[in-house]
């Protein structure tokens, strides 16, 4: 779910649609025959919403009016485009299995690879201007807009599943594998 033009936007992989809900509670469902398992959505730098479409191995764009455009660049791994976030550089960044992709609003894609990347999940812009992502190997990854990758590991990181920047300037993630009750 992400805030965008006209309300909160969400993906619904059960109906292969994208929806929007206004603050007054009006829901609009943008069902499209083109969509096939949309996974994540973010507000883009161009005023549209951008999303990953795992079933089509695509990155998509939807306007406030519901016009969908999908980009299917070579290099997207089958069933892998997971999280998507707008970067501080005016591009969209997405997780892509063993790489992180950077896509301009015109559709030009660059892939960044590193042996430590094993990402197909969430990605978010951090307060430091870098993109932070959940790595499949029980670590948190960081990639600068220049493509430098750093991996953070700790014995306490076990099954991270979501990551976001908090209002305190820190990054927060759900540590799904830790089941201690405090």
Count of helix runs? 0
How many strand segments?
Answer: 18
Low-confidence stretches: none
Characterize the biggest β-sheet.
Answer: 4 strands, antiparallel
User: In the CATH hierarchy, what is the superfamily?
Assistant: YVTN repeat-like/Quinoprotein amine dehydrogenase
Termini Cα gap: 29 Å
Query: What oligomerization state is this entry in?
Result: single chain
Q: Strands of the biggest beta sheet: in what spatial order? A: 1-2-3-4
Whole-number count of domains: 1
What name is given to the CATH topology?
Methylamine Dehydrogenase, Chain H
Strand content: over 45%
- Give the topology string: H per helix, E per strand: EEEEEEEEEEEEEEEEEE
Mean pLDDT across residues: 89
Structural class: mainly beta
Cα shape = globular
Q: Rg, please?
A: 16 Å
SSE topology sketch:
Elements: E1 2-4, E2 7-12, E3 17-21, E4 27-31, E5 38-43, E6 49-53, E7 58-62, E8 68-71, E9 81-86, E10 92-96, E11 99-103, E12 109-113, E13 123-125, E14 131-135, E15 139-143, E16 149-152, E17 160-165, E18 171-175
Antiparallel strand pairs: 1-2, 2-3, 3-4, 5-6, 6-7, 7-8, 9-10, 10-11, 11-12, 13-14, 14-15, 15-16, 17-18
Q: What this model shows, in words?
A:
The protein has 182 residues and is an all-beta fold. It has a single domain (2-175), classed as 7 Propeller (Methylamine Dehydrogenase, Chain H), CATH 2.130.10.10. It is built from no helices and 18 strands. The protein has strands spanning 2-4, 7-12, 17-21, 27-31, 38-43, 49-53, 58-62, 68-71, 81-86, 92-96, 99-103, 109-113, 123-125, 131-135, 139-143, 149-152, 160-165, 171-175. The strands form five sheets. It has a four-stranded antiparallel β-sheet with strand order 1-2-3-4, with no helix packed on it. A four-stranded antiparallel β-sheet has the order 5-6-7-8, with no helix packed on it. A four-stranded antiparallel β-sheet has the order 9-10-11-12, with no helix packed on it. The protein is globular and about 45 Å long. The two termini are 29 Å apart.
